[in-house]
Amino acid sequence: MEAISGSKVNHSSQSKIKESEIIQRILAGEKELYELLVRRNNQKLYRIIRSYLRDEADIEDVMQNSYLKAFYKLDQFKLESSFSTWLIRIGINESLDRLNEKGKIVHLNAQSETFKTNSILEIPDNKQLNPHEMMIRKEANQLMESAIDQLDAKYKAVYMLKEVEEMSLLEIAYTLDLTVSNVKVRLYRSKAMLKEKLYEITKDANLFEFGFSRCDRITERVMNNI
Questions:
Q1: DSSP assignment, residue 127?
Q2: CB of 198 within 8 A of CB of 150?
Q3: How confident is the model at residue 207 (pLDDT cuts 50, 70, 90)?
Q4: Which of 16, 26, 102, 172 is the least buried, fewest Cβ under 10 Å from its Cβ?
């Protein structure tokens, strides 16, 4: 994503630095490198927080709070997992706190659920689309986003992490504090619910896109507060 005005980070030269090295250098005092972690995770964090919150102002506030909490607790981060997985857990907790403040309680604990294996979403071919096909794809994405928004948070979160962010079942289980079996159940149920609402499903990584200007805005807000 584009660099923010006045940024001290040279993205062309720094974009390939390994995450573990970035974290070690931040802990050593190069806090400006935290911008790289923010930009690398803006899209993913936005999507998962949007699974719980609908108000865009709330979403951006929770994103900022999550990044700041992650920064100030970075010395507690274990390099055994990815930073994004750790950050998402913080983001989910911040989202639930915001819902609790608003009196909207979301129950995400594991439940006894039966898993079936006969339902999958269709994946479109990765061919280049002509303008008419692009219009159809855009309309399909809008329909898909509307359908996803109607899912309960516990199903929406699993669906977004697996089908959009392509996280593994094990990563999702760790992130949401569930068993792998529960993740499978919720993934199946989310797909079944969506198939009831749609005739054709398109899987597209542009769902709930966190655009350049918004990426710049949240990144600048975080960096101004550390």
A1: P
A2: no
A3: low
A4: 16
Are 113 and 182 in contact by the 8 Å Cβ rule? The answer is yes
Q: Are 9 and 35 in contact (CB under 8 A)?
A: yes
- How long is the chain? 226
Q: Could you read off the pLDDT of 81-106 as tens digits, one per residue? A: 789 999 999 999 999 999 888 776 55
pLDDT score of 13: 54
- Residue ranges and CATH numbers for the domains of the chain are 11-106+210-223 (1.10.1740.10)
- In the chain, the amino acid numbered 224 is N
Q: Which long-range contacts (CB under 8 A, 24 or more apart) does 49-52 make?
A: 49/91, 49/92, 49/94, 49/95, 50/160, 50/208, 51/95, 51/153, 51/156, 51/157, 51/160, 52/92, 52/95, 52/96, 52/98, 52/99, 52/106, 52/153, 52/156, 52/157
